[in-house]
Design a protein that fits this description.
Elements (H helix, E strand, L loop, with lengths): L1 E11 L3 H10 L1 H8 L3 E8 L7 E8 L2 E13 L4 E8 L7 E12 L5 E11 L7 H24 L4
Antiparallel strand pairs: 1-7, 2-3, 3-4, 4-5, 5-6, 6-7
Helix pairs in contact: 1-2, 1-3
Length: 157
């Protein structure tokens, strides 16, 4: 098994407490409304703390896929949320799992910065191309920007 790691920081024009609430605490309610293709997010084990497993079901064309999202660590006081995608039909055949370590830090002008470290645990000697890594980064940063837009349009959320 190999490990491929990416690290990056995404700025957002909203305070970290609002971004944390939307992307972490209320993720299961908000993302199916915001992200085309996400059909549902349901808790299959736990209530949100470490060890919780969420089943995320997506619909792509005429195909339904799912992944299991396990909460590894959550700390509301320090804005830390770590989770892993541990199995499912939406997880590439070349991957054992994908782990995310994220922390929201204060940003300029009352905004925030989402720092993320992603580790892809590959099967055998599987690798990623630069294009695949760039696409993954764009996808995850795009989710932050999508939530940021929603929060800016909905200041009472």
């Amino acid at each position: 098994m190999g490990v491929v790691t990416q690290e990056y920081a995404t700025p957002a024009a909203v305070p970290r407490n609002r971004l944390f609430k939307a992307m972490t605490l209320n993720f299961h309610n908000l993302f199916p409304k915001l992200v085309n293709g996400i059909h549902s997010i349901v808790f299959t084990q736990g209530t949100g703390g470490p060890g919780t497993i969420k089943k995320i079901t997506t619909i792509e064309g005429d195909k339904t896929k799912y992944v299991l999202h396990r909460v590894d660590a959550i700390d509301e006081a320090t804005f830390v949320y770590n989770f892993s995608i541990i199995e499912g039909t939406g997880l590439a055949d070349t991957l054992e799992k994908v782990s995310f370590e994220s922390k929201l830090e204060e940003g300029p002008n009352g905004g925030s910065i989402r720092k993320v470290r992603v580790q892809f645990f590959t099967k055998g000697d599987a690798t990623f191309s630069e294009e695949e890594l760039k696409a993954n980064k764009a996808k995850i940063e795009g989710l932050v920007k999508l939530v940021e837009s929603y929060l800016l349009e909905n200041p009472d959320y």
